[in-house]
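re: ur question from earlier - yeah i can do the single chain one, its not a big deal. heres the input i used so u can compare w yours
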Amino acid sequence: MKVRLLSPAGDMMSLKQAVYNGADEVYLGIKDFNARNNIEGFDMQSLRQAVEFAHAYNVKVHLTVNILFDDFEIQDALNLVVDAYNIGVDAFIVQDIGLISLISKYFPMVEIHASTQMGIHNLEGVRELEKLGVKRVVLARETPLDEIKRIRNNSKIEIEYFVQGALCISFSGNCYLSSYLHNASGNRGKCKQLCRLPYTFYDNDKLLKQGYLLSAKDFCMLPRLNDLIEAGVDAIKIEGRARRPFYVATVTKYYRDKIDGVEHKLDDLKLAFNRGFTPGYFDGNDNIISFNSGHQGLKIGKIQKIIVGKKFNEVYIKTDYDLKPKSVLKIFRDEREIGSISPYDVKKVDSLLYRLTTTGNNFKTGDTVNLLLDNEKEQRLETIHLKKDVFIHIDAYSNRPIVAKIKYLDHELSVEGNICEKAKNNPLKIEDFQKTFEKNDYFKPNLELNTDEIFMPISRLNEFRRKCYQVLLDKLTYIHEKIEPVKLGKPVCTQPEIKDYHISLNGEVDERKIQIYSPEVYEIEKIIAFKSKCEKLNKVAYLDLPNFVLKQDIEYLKNIVDKTKIGVVANNLYAMNFATDIIAGGGLNIYNDYSAGYFNVSYIVAERGEERMPYMALRFCPMKEYLKANCKNCPYKDGYYYKMQNGKVLKLKRKKLSSCTFYLTD
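and the output i got, formated as tokens:
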């Protein structure tokens, strides 16, 4: 089976463009219950319409329920799953482990996809999901190709992987910057996108770099798509529920064509939206930062000359692009954004030269011109309306009910209407039936008619047509047997939340009972010494495990735990199967008692706990990105930090295993 293409739908127009341009599946959200609650999204009524439309085109609908829930919200979230399932939603993308466990327990027939916000990036994490009956995992964008292959070769779970769109600079699900600084949790769909702001980067008090230092380029896996397919990925996913329909249409078409063996230049892909493109972490952990925070568009030419006027300035642009009025242009100088122009009076004055006017006066000859929006090209989208072939055989004999036998995809059904009258004159012809059955939004009818000259009022024929299509749509839409909601009881968790603990970075121990060692480098001698010190002082020692590890790291850490018998703090699902005493750490994002009850071990709360997690976990390397270093001459040491525009300092820390993960902390 070919890899399935999953496209975003922030509204009905985007949904249609995804379907018309070749998506196999679409994903969308209900407002307030998904990680994009800053867009209009869907309500239950429009969700029903979306399912009907998508299923009419044989496209599956996945509903994002991909945030963390409070205790008082999780009943409503479960009810939403029931209601959406009953109107035909095919699968649910979920982050909250408590909600996943409840769906699995009460509604095992419901298809669950583990959200990328769970940060699953290795086989061990996947195996924990398999215990819950999860059918598909949306892997973290940081998951390398070799690990994708390892998962495919050792698990039957479906693998979904992002291939295009915004790339979060922080490891999936473990960005708390917006939450801690503005009480706006990204895990609750309220991210303020503080990574897109300007920062300065220092070594102690020495300024090293400034600009959009945490603004990632956009993911673009088109050149590497065959690698993903050969690795066994089942579905490829396009990010962009907040993007406009042109973006959804263009990106969907590009990937549909690539899957089908048709190649394109990246021009329209760049025009749809880009901050610069990167294959993410497939080729290393540098070349991730865009140093711009917004849409860069498509480079089309340069400013050839400027004539300054009293009110308006004439700008002459040399380009082979067919410029049209109402386009939006962005001007760059030395890769730095200078300004933008939205011209209404574009005039072609030579074969490659266009003149336009603007009040902007900060442009210079030689500046680079990028096209952000081609208004005419976007307007053409609204005229697209594709219909699917449906085969309808009609028997219409006098004094007998009219009957339509419908064939569509794998479905065959029969619809019966009113009794036909014998025609006295002008009997209905196949053209009359054809014209009537063409009146619908979804289907292109291919008709066969058997009749003995009958009469039927057009109003009654229209009624029969509506009945036929509605029966077909109901068959396509309501694909599940109905399930009934359940009333949740109080969650059972016999283990407490841990609030009074000490995190030790250098092996020091304080007066608190629980001591958690969180080293930069995991050296067994130092871990043994820490555990011994804790035992002498009647303390309980735990080793803080990283939220991101690869296969060789897991083996290395398990060997340490086996030899030292130290307990661990698990910050990702992979660590829940370590053979030792386990605390569920903040990285697991326990937000409600149902999640705590599922793990049923002592746990630490991340976003509402007394001690904070790091603001971000970074899989890109600032040393490579900013300082052009490499692993052999890595200059990392204590003293590097970022500073926000408001003066807030974010210290850069590191954990080093087979690769490095960097953290931003107080």
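The first strand starts at residue 4 and ends at 8. not sure if urs matches, ping me
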